[in-house]
């Protein structure tokens, strides 16, 4: 089994006040950084996925799009840019994983209810075994049908729905044992 770490959208956009601010992104990024360090130490493939947000007119646009300092890519690490929730859609990710002989993915990142959910489910279409590090992911409060759904509930619901059928959902501590 050959595994790769896929860090999804751990970008400054999610740490700043505004419409994309997530629930405790620093905690998730900290846990993701521990997993990233393990992969670096073990010299295993690392893929950073970056979502291309529209930041027209924002003076700090480049900063918002950049990876958070907790998980900045090293020069030898792969960076994939995407325009949709799926990192597989029109990006070359699948081709890169095939070139590397990857059959197992460890996934961390943002947002649980959107890009994490999409990518974990899509990975099953390609027969990847997925380990999802639940405390290295986060999301935000959502509004639906006139109700505010707290981020903790959204995150828990997504992790529960992915656990088993789509991924082995564990903590960073469990993964790093």
Number of E strands? 8
* Oligomeric state of this protein: single chain
The residue-averaged pLDDT reads 96
In sequence order, what are the helices and strands, one letter per element?
EHEHEHEHEEEHEH
Q: Which radius of gyration do the C-alpha atoms yield?
A: 15 Å
Count of distinct structural domains = 1
| Unreliable stretches covering 5 or more consecutive residues | none
Q: What's the main sheet like?
A: 6 strands, parallel
Task: Please characterize this protein's 3D structure.
Strands 3-2-1-4-5-8 form a 6-stranded parallel sheet. A two-stranded antiparallel sheet has the order 6-7. It has a single domain, classed as Isochorismatase-like (Rossmann fold, 3-Layer(aba) Sandwich). The protein is of the alpha/beta class and 177 residues long. The protein is built from 6 helices and 8 strands. The mean pLDDT is 96.
Task: Describe the structure concisely for a colleague.
The chain has 177 residues and is an alpha/beta fold. Helices cover 34% and strands 24% of the residues.
Would you spell out the secondary-structure blueprint of this structure?
Blueprint: E1 3-8, H1 25-41, E2 46-51, H2 61-65, E3 78-82, H3 93-100, E4 104-110, H4 112-125, E5 129-138, E6 142-144, E7 147-149, H5 151-162, E8 168-170, H6 172-176
Parallel strand pairs: 1-2, 1-4, 2-3, 4-5, 5-8
Antiparallel strand pairs: 6-7
Helix pairs in contact: 4-5
């Amino acid at each position: 089994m050959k595994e790769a770490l896929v860090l999804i959208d751990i970008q400054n956009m999610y740490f700043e006040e505004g419409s994309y601010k997530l629930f405790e992104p620093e905690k998730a990024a900290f846990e993701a950084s521990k997993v990233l360090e393990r992969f670096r130490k073990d010299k295993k493939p690392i893929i950073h996925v970056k979502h291309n947000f529209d930041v027209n007119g924002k003076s700090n646009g480049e900063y918002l799009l950049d990876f958070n300092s907790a998980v900045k890519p090293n020069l030898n690490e792969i960076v994939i840019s995407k325009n949709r929730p799926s990192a597989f859609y029109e990006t070359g990710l699948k081709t890169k994983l095939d070139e590397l002989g990857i059959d197992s993915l460890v996934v961390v990142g943002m947002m649980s209810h959107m890009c994490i959910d999409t990518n974990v489910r899509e990975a099953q279409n390609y027969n990847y075994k997925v380990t999802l590090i639940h405390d290295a992911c986060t999301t935000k409060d959502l509004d639906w049908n006139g109700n505010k759904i707290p981020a903790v509930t959204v995150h828990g619901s997504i992790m529960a729905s992915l656990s088993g059928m789509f991924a082995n959902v564990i903590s960073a501590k469990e993964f790093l044992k």
